[in-house]
């Protein structure tokens, strides 16, 4: 009986050590690495700041549910674009992240404003779907 009790205690201790403290926390995911469909005037972008904190560029980010302020920069390669490279600027986007959702972000060209530095693109969620997310890293 003592052996059985000791074995149970040891197994419980090992299980506790192996437990990932983030595994039971819900999260949502933002994805920027997947090439969006150009037929919809969508192009890649990068996240440069999250809630006013600079971030290192990554293909995707996991967040606990909540509202986030994103600063984004476009990678638009479109011969119609008449905005000089030095006049291109970032855009802000507020996104409400929901648990177990994946959001694909893109820069959408505004065809009626191709010569306007402040209006030639907008950040958009071009695809959203349910996807299991097991932990959230703090932004």
Automatic annotation (TrEMBL):
Signal sequence interval, chain numbering: 1-18
Keywords: Signal
PROSITE patterns, per database record: PROKAR_LIPOPROTEIN
Keyword Signal included in the entry's annotation: yes
The protein's name in its UniProt record: Lipoprotein
Gene source species: Ferrimonas pelagia
